[in-house]
Amino acid sequence: MRRVLVPIFRFTAIFFMLSLGAGLVHELYHTKRPPDIAESYLAEAERLYAAGDYALAVRRLSVAAELSRDDIAHYRLFEAREKLKTEQAP
Amino acid sequence: MKALVGRTFVHPFFDYLFIGGGLSLVCTILVYQRQNPLLGWSLETLPWFILLSNSAHFAASTVRLYTKPGTFKEHPYLTMAFPLVSIVLLVFCIALPLRLGVHLQALYLTWSPYHYAAQAYGLAVIYCIRSGCSLTPKRKKIFRATCVLPFLLVFLSAPHAGLGWLAPSLQEAVPPLVRQVLIGAVFLLPIAFFVYVYRCGCRPMPLIGLLAVLANGIWWVVLDYLSAFFWATIFHGLQYLAIATIFHVKDQSDLPNNERGALYHTTHFYLLSLVLGYGLFYCWPYAFVLVGFGLAESVLLVAAAINIHHFIVDAHIWRMGSGGGHRLSIAI
């Protein structure tokens, strides 16, 4: 049985390493790509949020959430709206 | 007092904080007090926590499987055939995400709390053995049953997992009283077991064992399901990394041709786990995307498959003594 298992293991190891390498190249390629509109809006909103300008941050995040498929923009939008509500509360 | 503290591996402070789950209790109190599941950390920092603790811990079981002396001989199917079986199943699940993938995801979410509970039990037993507290097989069974109560609680109430996955109509029929009783039992029964062992005249069970079991209960009872899932994975990972590193260092140091010190083996083990964890969770899903599968199913199902692989591997590698007869059952 071991005669069969060893080549199976070697095949799996080679397949796994190749797929891992391909995935790594793809990951590296994506981290180097220029930021898209949603990302730049998100970055801008982060800066505004940190500066305490929640109203403007909400406007930027609304666009980012609209464009981005990433959950982070939606989460940030919710967070900024909550901050804005707290700030506007009497 | 010394008998109650037990015989620790590194230092009582380290063992109680990281392996026993003391640090997680501090964190749970803060999350509960502030009602802030992220404790003020920004969402961008979370992947770092997950990579350094959780992803590395999943990879650690694979690193341990292939570096522990004698595993290829002891577990030929697990080491050589199981990876291919896992990959084939994963490909089927990614190819049929709505028919198979959702069930793989639900299986992983259902199994996780059980795995955590079993790890708490395993850790408690490790410290009992180490501290000279002998538990008879019958007592071990009783203790194990008390340790898996948090799993039962999650099984009955978790959304999209456990009963919510297997029989959603039954989940709605579970009376709230059952949940209340289980919450009480999660804490009272391990304490009762500890007192029982203490009073039976034999060497007491070390407090770190009780702490590990109670910490696991607290994660699932005090925090809401999502916070519990998030923090439990981080602290479970930390716990696992610490104990796995200790065993790895001991195994490597005991090899006749060993020329390296404990620091080398510790760093080597952690770095290998970290790199593999990064590769598995952050790069490998893209390989599936490259051949045409969707990103969401690739990321989610690769994570689910790695989790399940980890649960199964853990069930086999945590054996002590000759012939593997003395099973610690840290998982499964």
Give the helix/strand layout.
The complex is a heterodimer of chains A (90) and B (332).
Chain A: H1 2-32, H2 37-50, H3 54-67, H4 71-88
Chain B: H1 2-5, H2 12-19, H3 22-34, H4 46-67, H5 71-74, H6 76-95, H7 97-130, H8 137-147, H9 149-157, H10 163-166, H11 168-173, H12 176-199, H13 207-222, H14 225-253, H15 262-290, H16 295-317, E1 319-320, E2 326-327
Antiparallel strand pairs in B: 1-2
Question: Concise description?
Answer:
Chain A has 90 residues and is mainly α. Chain A contains 4 helices and no strands. Chain B has one domain.
Task: Describe what you observe in this structure.
The complex is a heterodimer of chains A (90) and B (332). Chain A contains 4 helices and no strands. Chain A is an all-alpha fold and 90 residues long. In chain A, helix 2 runs antiparallel to helix 3 and helix 3 runs antiparallel to helix 4. In chain A, 17% of the residues are buried. Chain B has one domain. Helix content of chain B is 77%, strand content 1%. In chain B, strands 1-2 form a two-stranded antiparallel sheet. In chain B, helix 4 packs across helix 15, helix 8 packs antiparallel against helix 12 and helix 9 runs parallel beside helix 13.
Write out key terms for the chains shown.
heterodimer; A: 90 residues; mainly alpha; 2 domains; 4 helices; B: 332 residues; two-stranded antiparallel ribbon; 16 helices; 2 strands; 77% helix
**What is the CA-atom radius of gyration of chain B, in angstroms?**
20 Å
Which structural class is indicated by helix and strand composition of chain A? mainly alpha
Estimated structural class of chain B? mainly alpha
Count the E strands of chain B.
2
Shape of chain B: globular
What Rg of chain A, in angstroms, do the CA atoms define?
22 Å
Amino-to-carboxy terminus distance of chain A = 76 Å
Q: First CA to last CA of chain B: what distance?
A: 33 Å
Spans where pLDDT lies below 50 across 5 or more residues of chain B: 321-327
Shape of chain A: elongated
Task: Count up the helices of chain A.
Answer: 4
